Hints:
Layout: E1 2-14, E2 20-32, E3 36-40, H1 47-54, E4 62-67, E5 70-71, E6 81-84, H2 96-106, H3 111-124, H4 140-152, E7 158-162, H5 170-185, E8 189-194, H6 197-203, E9 206-211, E10 214-220, H7 221-227, E11 229-237, E12 245-246, E13 249-255, E14 258-264, H8 268-278, E15 281-289, H9 292-306
Bound molecules: adenosine-5'-triphosphate and magnesium ion.
The site of adenosine-5'-triphosphate has 13 residues, from strand 2 and helix 1.
Amino acid sequence: MNAIEISGLCKQFKGKRRTCVDALKNLDLQIEAGEVFGFLGPNGAGKSTTIKLVMGLLRPTSGTAIIMGVDSTLAESRRKVGFLPENPAFYDYLSAEEYVAFVGSQFKMDTALLKRRSDEVIKQLDLWEARKRPMRSYSKGMIQRVGLAQALVHDPDVYILDEPMSGLDPIGRALVKDIILDLKKRGKCVFFSTHITDDVEKVCDRVGVIVKGSLVAIDRVENILRSGLEGYLVHLQLSDADAGTFAGLQAVRRTGTVSEFYVPSSVFNAFMGAVNTSGKEVVLVETKRRDLEDFFLSLVTSSAQESR
Ligand SMILES: Nc1ncnc2c1ncn2[C@@H]1O[C@H](COP(=O)(O)OP(=O)(O)OP(=O)(O)O)[C@@H](O)[C@H]1O
Ligand SMILES: [Mg+2]
């Protein structure tokens, strides 16, 4: 069974003067149990709209979303879900400890288990010192951490997180990546939105790119990175006499006695064969690839050009 199954999901918002905004257009998406899926898109692409539809916070114009076999319009579908909304805002007179306990009690957790889990997640998110202070005294990043703590407390099987790294400093971002990787290790499903490709590259199995309400690409992260492989930088130890060219290629740089050659993938095997035959020393081979950022930007730019 898929953890999340989205079929033909559409959402139109009413705009000014009887106009409509197509925030989401016919989205089909299946997220497997145990999968970490990055939902990548620029501002206004429809990420939060999708998440709100899946969480039953918005009614779809058409289509369905099913979580662990239960339709998202039913409250029952959210029983096994940990949810982080975009821009979380909580009852600010409560402390982190009180709020996390409140959320845990909504999931009918046993009192002793709730206390243990609450302490665990509060420590994990580095909120221990502040746990008894009212949240109105918290910084933005601390509120985001409370948002994550309350999503984790009942140890659900599915996590739906709207920009989990938002508002966090580099240490906080690294912490959240570690938490997601830990969930993955424990076989949990994580569906999260972001517009930062680095977040996706480090933790996701698959990525879907949404632009202007439409899914424009979906693939395994490793496939995207592999398809973007363009060539190699081969560093060779060469004497001054033959430093400039090798096997028909021109050196792109020379540092001391080492020359660097850009070798396109198509001629890599032939080039390395020539290196072996010549007995020259290989100092380093680096892959030179298009990264996820380039891939994302090319999709967003081409979609912007098409709609012109
Ligand atoms: N309640 C609403 N009423 C009217 N339009 C809305 C409403 N909510 C969202 N929209 C529009 O739907 C589109 C998608 O918005 P959404 O919040 O889903 O984007 P997003 O991908 O989450 O962007 P961001 O990265 O900025 O959070 C935008 O054009 C937005 O203006
Ligand atoms: Mg959003």
